[in-house]
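Data card: per-record layout.
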Amino acid sequence: MWRFIFAFLAVSGLVGNACAEGTLEDLVAALRSGNITECRGCDLSGAKFKKADLSGVDLTGAILTDATFHRAKLRGAVLDGVIAIGTNFNLADLTTAQMVNGDFSRSMFYGAQMSGADLSASNLTEARLQTARLTSAKLQGAVLDRALMRDAVANNADFSKTSIQQTNLNGARLGRSVFDGATINFAGFVEAEASRASFVSATISHTDFLGADLRRAKVTGATLTGNRFTTAATRDVDFDEAIMSGNFMADGRLQD
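The structure for this 256-residue chain is written out next.
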């Protein structure tokens, strides 16, 4: 019965009413089956979508706190403005998903496919993104404070004006990524691959670049204070174009 009702409302453009009236189980079943592909503002707290195919679904403004999307397909899904605190997206496929201005704090994205996803202005505080693939992802103005991004793949990603404080990016692949205007404090880039990355006008302090690949990185107008670049590859990096003090340079020398 519910499948018929949801299908009718979806065709009639009245999906919002179905979302308001259906139980959580009804909504989950209808979304899983594809009978509805839009559930804006729905309360899906704690919902189970493990291995579900939700490609292209529109969940704008939905509440997804503590929900499970483990190994789910969310390619091209719209998750703008969602509240997804502590949500499980481990190994999910979020390729080109729209995730603007969402609250993903403490959520898990271990091994998730997020290439081309738009996470601009989203809150990813304490999110776990180990080994996640964020190639060409957009994270302008996002908050990544205390996030765990060890061994993430984020080549060509846009981190401009992002807050990266106490964030673990050790071993991450960040080639040609943009950190222009970002605030980076007490973060870890140990052995990260960040050749040709751009840190123009960024503020970077007390961050560890031990053994990182920074060849041809741009630091024009950046402020670098108390960082460690020991054994980092810094060929063709013009530190004279940055404002610097108290940094350990690649040769182990402490800057005056």
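Known properties of this structure: The first strand starts at residue 163 and ends at 165. Confidence is low (pLDDT under 50) at residues 1-18.

See the next section for split statistics.
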